């Protein structure tokens, strides 16, 4: 899943929302170079929710070079949230966590992480490095959507801050 703008939304009566709901699978999900908005749920929203499948197998996605944000006005807005102990991404690298998020990383094994230093210090993820926080500084509006137009503007902490993924071949069948 690469180079997208993903908007999480809540259905009627929904209390929480997520931009991506990563469910356990033997096929690992690669989430690279996306802007992911957790949505506008009244209770909680997460850009990425990592959870097990119906058999209890945890999801272990690769999360690289993304912007995690949330347009929700709820008090519990997070970039990444684990739904269970052991529901850890395999990689969490060079992502930008919107500095207005209440929680950068909801760690089911410990507690909510609210500083980028503690995100980069997570020890239960195989590879975690170079994540940063700051304001994406989204700009403009799009008449086809009712929320902020999620394109980064001048002065954004996301400009030239990631790394060019060299792990993906030029052509990849998904």
Description:
There is one protein chain. With 174 residues, the chain is an all-beta fold. It contains one helix and 14 strands, in the order ββββββββββββαββ. Strands 1-4-7-10-14 form a five-stranded parallel beta sheet. Strands 2-5-8-11-12 form a five-stranded mixed beta sheet. A four-stranded parallel beta sheet has the order 3-6-9-13, with no helix packed on it. The longest helix is centred in the C-terminal third of the chain and has 5 residues, at 116-120.
What is the topological layout?
Elements: E1 5-7, E2 16-23, E3 30-32, E4 35-37, E5 44-51, E6 62-64, E7 67-69, E8 76-82, E9 91-93, E10 96-98, E11 103-106, E12 112-113, H1 116-120, E13 127-129, E14 132-134
Content of β-strand: 25-35%
Q: Roughly what is the average pLDDT, rounded to an integer?
A: 80
Rg, rounded, reads 15 Å
Low-confidence stretches: none
Order of helices and strands: EEEEEEEEEEEEHEE
Total beta-strand segments: 14
Helical segment count: 1
Output the keywords:
174 residues, 14 strands
Gist?
With 174 residues, the chain is mainly beta.
């Amino acid at each position: 899943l690469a180079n997208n703008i993903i908007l999480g939304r809540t259905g009627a009566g929904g209390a929480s929302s997520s931009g991506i709901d990563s469910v356990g699978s033997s096929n690992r999900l690669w989430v690279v170079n996306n802007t992911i908005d957790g949505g506008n749920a009244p209770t909680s929203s997460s850009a990425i929710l990592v959870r097990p499948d119906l058999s209890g197998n945890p999801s272990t996605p690769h999360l690289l070079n993304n912007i995690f944000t949330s347009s929700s006005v709820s008090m519990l807005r997070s970039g990444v949230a684990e739904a269970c102990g052991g529901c850890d991404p395999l990689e969490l690298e060079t992502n930008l966590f919107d500095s207005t998020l209440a929680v950068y990383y909801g760690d089911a094994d410990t507690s909510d992480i609210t500083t980028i230093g503690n995100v980069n210090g997570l020890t239960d993820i195989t590879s975690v490095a170079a994540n940063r926080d700051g304001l994406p500084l989204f700009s403009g509006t799009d008449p086809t959507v009712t929320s902020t137009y999620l394109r980064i503007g001048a002065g954004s902490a996301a400009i030239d801050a990631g790394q060019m993924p060299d792990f993906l071949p030029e052509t990849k069948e998904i």
